[in-house]
Amino acid sequence: MWYKYVMEINRKLTVEIVDNGMNGEGIAKLENTTIFVPNTLQGEVVEVEIYKTKNNLAFANLVKIIKESNERRKPLCPVFGECGGCDFQHTNYENQLKLKTNVVKTTLQKSLGVINVKPCVPSPKQFGYRNKIEVPIGDNKIGFYKWNTNTIVPIKNCPLCESWFKKLLNAFDFFIKNYNISTYNKQTRKGNLRHLVARYIDDCLSIVVVITEKTFPHAKELIDLLKKDFPNLNVFQNINAKPSGAVMSSNFKFLCGKPVQTATDFGIMYEISPYSFLQVNRDMQNIIYQNILDKIEKNSVVIDAFSGAGLLTAIVSKKCKKVFGIEIVKDASGNADELLKQNNIKNAININADCGVELPKLVEKLKAQNTQNINIILDPPRKGVSKEVLKAILKCQPSKILYLSCNPATLARDLKELAHKYKIESVQPYDMFPQTKHIETLVCLERKEN
Ligand SMILES: C[S@@+](CC[C@H](N)C(=O)[O-])C[C@H]1O[C@@H](n2cnc3c(N)ncnc32)[C@H](O)[C@@H]1O
What we know:
Elements: H1 2-6, E1 12-20, E2 26-30, E3 33-37, E4 45-54, E5 57-67, H2 93-112, E6 132-138, E7 141-145, E8 152-154, H3 163-178, E9 193-201, E10 204-211, H4 219-229, E11 233-239, E12 252-256, E13 261-265, E14 268-272, H5 282-295, E15 301-305, H6 311-317, E16 322-327, H7 330-342, E17 348-352, H8 355-368, E18 374-378, H9 387-396, E19 400-405, H10 408-418, E20 422-430, E21 440-447
Parallel strand pairs: 3-5, 10-11, 15-16, 15-18, 16-17, 18-19
Antiparallel strand pairs: 1-2, 1-4, 2-3, 4-5, 6-7, 6-9, 7-8, 9-10, 11-12, 13-14, 19-21, 20-21
Helix pairs in contact: 2-10, 3-4, 8-9
S-adenosylmethionine (SAM) binds near residues 306, 307, 327, 328 and 332.
């Protein structure tokens, strides 16, 4: 059949890109088949090579651009297209924002019908914005995974981080070669050095060196080497021999410096341990936090669910009567407690627990006390909010819900549940992760009048 023949693996085709999809990839249509082609833009005519087919879907790599979009630009990074870290370096920043706004709009409209989505707020920095990075190490290479594989593409720098990252990579490269350090092999599961996790905040570098064996050879030499470039240095080791995808285990050992990094935002001093979540783009984080603060009702009782290291909880405490932060990671909740102590904040309480368990209990307690004017902030991980949490929210019916999401698909799913009782007041995407497909979205929901 013509259709089957055309869609063979390795087959080369010339197609027109008619749209861009949820992951930023270009979309072409041929007969009844949809073809996904990364690194292409709407309006382009391209030669592609099919590498996978499934029912009436085909996945292809870009071979040659025949007609180029005006939105195309030269990527800054020499390994763009090979490295799986970035999706959008081939298009100008304005178009990146348009594509992201469109993804949020299309995804939400599928579940909720026509919806007004505000244009994506640009990041103050388009490059050099990341304060944290996780780098796989293996087969004597340090770099990022090749798109859709476990193969490491060696890198010397990443333009998403400032110059600290290049210095760190240089030092690690030298360390591995000079001391003949064994690196992990995913197939054989042999080799020691496996991952480098680094966070750089206010001139302080904190790294976690993930190893698979009980000993970390030449750790002292590594620390001495790094101290030349990073006088303010914290080093941890983490032993993770499990073959699963998780980068770190809970087996940490503190090797040098201080166990936490400190920073100040909104006049609040806070601490971050390596296991705590912190938004990677601090400028964008603070724009979003300010927008959340603006929307919180004065004198409300706030539940900050999925509260991380507690900075947002503390910011909100300035405006509300009382705030409860709920966070599952012990270290992060500990950071949040320390923050309250150091900043002398008295109207906030951190609860170290699973939101699915604790939020329903807290809601019961607040209802029993006849608490009025409850606002809930939800900032869950990519998998979104559990059924238990949604049920508890619908039970207590807060006057306002501020849902900050990093995944439009789970956001759409959860909003569909909440939409029975809540009207969507605003949908605001933010570009927390320029050059990549990832989007942060803040949705403000207000309780419908009965
Ligand atoms: C996207 S982060 C948001 C953190 C914080 N709001 C911030 O802005 O830094 C999600 C947080 O939820 C926490 N978390 C994940 N699952 C959880 C659960 N079931 N209950 C409570 N916290 C959870 C994670 O540890 C992480 O700190």
